[in-house]
Amino acid sequence: MSRRVAFAPFHDQIASYLDMPEDEVTAFGMSLGFGEPEAEVNQTRMPRHSVQDFARLLGFSGTVSG
């Protein structure tokens, strides 16, 4: 079982805290839990962009791969 959380409804609070420019938006989702690799929904493989192509991550040290 996994849980998904969306932070977009809290954009005003997050943007204020992170001092985000007005031309940026909060769009984020995260799933936590255990996957079911054999489930039909998990059989589709889609191409993905690198995280650096579309996101600016704040508050993390080190490098981000993907």
Tally of helical runs: 1
The dominant shape is: elongated
Termini separation comes to 24 Å
**Radius of gyration over C-alpha positions, nearest whole angstrom:** 15 Å
Most strands sheet: 2 strands, antiparallel
Helix and strand succession?
EHE
Mean pLDDT metric: 77
Name the beta content range.
15-25%
Q: What percent of residues adopt helix (DSSP H or I)?
A: 10-25%
Placed side by side, the strands forming the largest sheet appear as: 1-2
Q: Which class do the helix and strand fractions yield? A: alpha+beta
GO molecular function: oxidoreductase activity
InterPro entries: Nitroreductase-like (IPR000415)
Tell me about this structure.
The structure is a single chain. The protein is an alpha+beta fold. The protein has one domain. 12% of the residues lie in helices and 15% in strands. The chain has one helix and two strands; from the N terminus they run E-H-E. It has a two-stranded antiparallel sheet. The longest helix has 8 residues. GO terms for molecular function: oxidoreductase activity.
